[in-house]
Design brief:
Elements: H1 6-32, H2 39-45, E1 63-71, E2 78-80, E3 87-89, H3 98-107, E4 112-115, H4 123-141, E5 146-153, E6 161-165, H5 171-182, H6 197-208, E7 215-218, H7 236-245, E8 250-256, H8 283-286, H9 291-296, E9 303-306, E10 327-333, H10 337-345, E11 349-353, E12 357-366, E13 369-372, E14 376-379, E15 385-395, E16 410-417, E17 434-439, E18 445-447, E19 450-460, E20 464-471, E21 491-494, E22 497-501
Parallel strand pairs: 1-4, 4-5, 7-8, 8-9, 14-22
Antiparallel strand pairs: 1-10, 2-3, 5-6, 6-7, 10-11, 11-21, 12-13, 12-15, 15-19, 16-17, 16-20, 18-19, 20-21, 20-22
Length: 502
C-alpha cells in the first residue's frame, strides 16, 4: 500500500469523523423508535410496491438506481447451542442496527438495499420474530431507500447466497418457509441430509414454483478457491445445475465481492485468503474467456453484481465499507420494489467500484433494431449483418467517498460467441471470447454530460454477446490484488447485450 501524503491523512481523518457521526445518528434512531410488533400489523405498516409517496423524483420512470443486496446487521450474531431451546445473541459477527445500514446506504447514494444476515440453528425463528420487525421500523425511518427482506442463505452444498424475497404482505412467512425447510444450518441438531446438491436443486425448484419468485445470487464465489481455475465450495457444475432447475430464480454471482477495505487494515480484498481477486473482482468474472464467459457462451442469462458484504467498517477494525461507499450495483428500474427485482432478474445491471462512473449504457443496433444491457437483438444471417455497439458512460461529477475525482483511463469491449450448452458441466472457458477493442480518452467524444464510444462488429454470422469494462488503471488485464489501496484500483463492468442471428 502506498504511503499517504499529509493532506490525504487529514482527509481520511475528516472522512472518519463523518462516518462516526453518521453511525451515531443511525444508532440514535434505532434506539428512539418503538418496535413494530406482531404479524397482524405488517400489512398495514408498509407501503406497497408501486406506491411512490416517499420515492425520489422521477420514481415512475426507469433510471439507473444504485443498490446493494449483501449487507449484514447486528442480527448476524451467534448461537448458544448448549441451551434448549437455542439462544441467539446479537452483534457477534456484524454490529450495526438495520436502520444504521439504511441511513448509510442513503448517505452514499443508494436507492435500494437488502439486509442479508447469517443463518444458523433455528435462525428462521430469529428472523421472523426479531429481525423482521426491525426491518419494518427501518423502512418507516428511511423510506427513501427500498429495503428488501431476505438473508445470506446457507445454500446446500455451496457457499453463501443472497436469498431475496419479493416485497409482499407475506414476505416474512415466505422467507421463514424457505429457510426453515432448506437452509443447511437451520435444523438443530444439524441434518447432514440438508447439505447436498440435490437439496439445493430441490430448494430452487420450490422457489421457482412460488407465486412470488425470489432471487438467488452466489456470494464471494471463489473465496474458497485454492488457485486460478481451481474451485472450492462453488463449482461450475453446481451453477449450471442450479440455473437449469430455476433460470428465473438462480441468476448469477457477485462479480465484485464485499470486504474490499481489507487492505486498509493489512488484509486481503474480499477476504480472499487462498487465491486473490483481480482488480477487486472474482476470478470467475475478471478472467476474459473464463467461467462467466463460459456460462454466457451457452446462452445463459447469468448476471454479475457488486456488494459491500458490510459487517464492521474498516475505521473500527473491520474490513468493510458502508453500503454504497465503495461498491454499487446499478439496476435500470423504477423506484419500485417489483421493478428493481425485475431489473435484477433480467440483467439490466452494471457495477462499479469507487464511483469511477455514475452511468453506463451499452446498446447494440442493426437494421433499425436495438437492444440494451440484458436484452437481445435479432438480425438476419443472410444479410451478413454489421452490428453497431454504442458505449455511453458518465463520469463522476465531484468526489467519491475517499475525496478523489476518479478518471477512466480505458474502456474495453469484450465479445464472445454463443455456441449452446456445453457437453462438459465443469467447463470454465470460452475460447471465442476476446477483447475486440480498447478505447482511451482520444477515442471517446463528449455529448452533453456523457462520453460516447462507437464500434462496429462486422459481418456478425453467429449468436454473440458483447459486454464492457473500464478502469482507472493502466493494466491491460486486471492484476492479482495485493496490499494496494482499493481506491487506486477501480473498475466498472456491464452485463452483456445479446445478438441472435436467424
Amino acid at each position: 500500500m502506498r504511503d499517504k501524503q499529509p493532506e490525504e491523512v487529514e482527509r481520511a481523518q475528516l472522512s472518519r469523523r463523518k462516518l462516526v457521526k453518521y453511525a451515531g445518528v443511525g444508532a440514535t434512531l434505532a434506539a428512539a423508535s418503538p418496535l413494530v410488533g406482531g404479524a397482524a400489523a405488517w400489512a398495514d405498516e408498509e407501503r406497497r410496491p408501486g406506491d411512490d409517496r416517499s420515492d425520489r423524483g422521477g420514481s415512475k420512470a426507469r433510471a439507473w438506481r444504485a443498490g446493494d443486496h449483501h449487507v449484514h446487521s447486528e442480527y448476524s450474531g451467534e448461537f448458544d447451542t448448549t441451551k434448549s431451546p437455542v439462544v441467539f445473541h446479537k452483534g457477534a459477527d456484524a454490529v450495526y442496527p438495520i436502520v444504521t445500514n439504511a441511513i448509510m446506504a442513503k448517505n452514499f447514494g443508494l436507492s435500494w438495499a437488502m439486509c442479508t444476515d447469517h443463518g444458523g440453528p433455528t435462525h428462521s425463528k430469529v428472523n421472523i420474530e426479531q429481525a423482521y420487525p426491525d426491518l419494518l421500523r427501518s423502512r418507516k425511518l428511511v423510506p427513501e431507500v427500498l429495503q428488501f427482506w431476505g438473508m445470506e442463505f446457507d445454500a446446500p452444498s455451496l457457499d453463501h447466497h443472497t436469498l431475496m424475497i419479493p416485497r409482499h404482505d407475506d414476505e416474512a412467512k415466505q422467507l421463514f418457509e424457505l429457510e426453515s425447510r432448506f437452509a443447511k444450518y437451520d435444523a438443530f441438531p444439524t441434518d447432514p441430509g440438508r447439505d447436498t446438491e440435490a437439496k439445493m436443486v430441490e430448494f430452487l425448484k420450490v422457489a421457482r414454483g412460488m407465486p412470488h419468485k425470489p432471487l438467488v445470487i452466489a456470494h464471494h464465489a471463489s473465496r474458497s478457491a485454492p488457485g486460478l481455475g481451481v474451485y472450492g465450495q462453488d463449482t461450475p457444475r453446481e451453477f449450471r445445475n442450479g440455473n437449469n432447475a430455476a433460470p428465473d430464480v438462480y441468476i448469477g454471482f457477485e462479480g465484485a465481492p464485499g470486504h474490499q477495505a481489507g487492505p486498509l487494515n493489512g488484509g486481503k480484498r474480499g477476504g480472499y485468503g487462498n487465491h486473490p481477486t483481480y482488480g477487486g473482482f472474482d476470478q470467475m468474472t475478471a478472467r476474459v474467456g473464463g467461467l462467466w464467459d463460459s456460462l454466457l457462451g451457452e446462452g445463459r442469462r447469468w448476471w454479475i453484481t457488486a456488494t459491500s458484504d458490510s459487517h464492521v467498517h474498516w475505521t473500527r477494525g473491520g474490513s468493510d465499507f458502508w453500503p454504497g461507499e465503495y461498491s454499487k450495483t446499478y439496476v435500470h428500474a423504477r423506484q419500485d420494489y417489483g421493478d428493481i427485482m425485475d431489473g435484477l432478474r433480467n440483467g439490466r445491471i452494471w457495477v462499479t467500484t469507487g464511483d469511477l462512473i455514475r452511468s453506463l449504457d451499452v446498446t447494440a443496433s442493426s437494421q433499425g433494431r436495438t437492444a440494451e444491457v440484458g436484452e437481445t437483438i435479432t438480425v438476419s444471417r443472410r444479410d451478413r449483418t454489421d452490428v453497431e455497439i454504442e458505449i455511453r458512460f458518465r463520469p463522476l461529477d465531484g468526489e467519491n467517498a475517499n475525496g478523489d475525482r476518479p478518471e477512466v483511463r480505458r474502456v474495453d469491449l469484450i465479445v464472445g460467441q454463443i455456441t449452446g450448452p456445453s457437453t462438459n458441466p465443469d467447463a470454465d472457458t470460452n475460447p471465442t471470447t476476446k477483447v475486440v477493442a480498447r478505447f482511451g480518452p482520444r477515442d471517446w467524444r463528449r455529448q452533453g454530460a456523457d462520453y460516447v464510444i462507437r464500434h462496429t462488429l462486422r459481418n456478425v454470422e453467429a449468436d454473440t454477446y458483447a459486454r464492457v469494462r473500464g478502469t482507472s488503471t493502466d493494466e491491460a488485464e486486471p492484476l492479482a490484488d495485493g496490499l494496494e489501496s482499493p481506491w487506486d484500483d477501480l473498475w466498472f463492468y456491464s452485463n452483456p447485450v445479446f445478438v441472435q442471428v436467424r
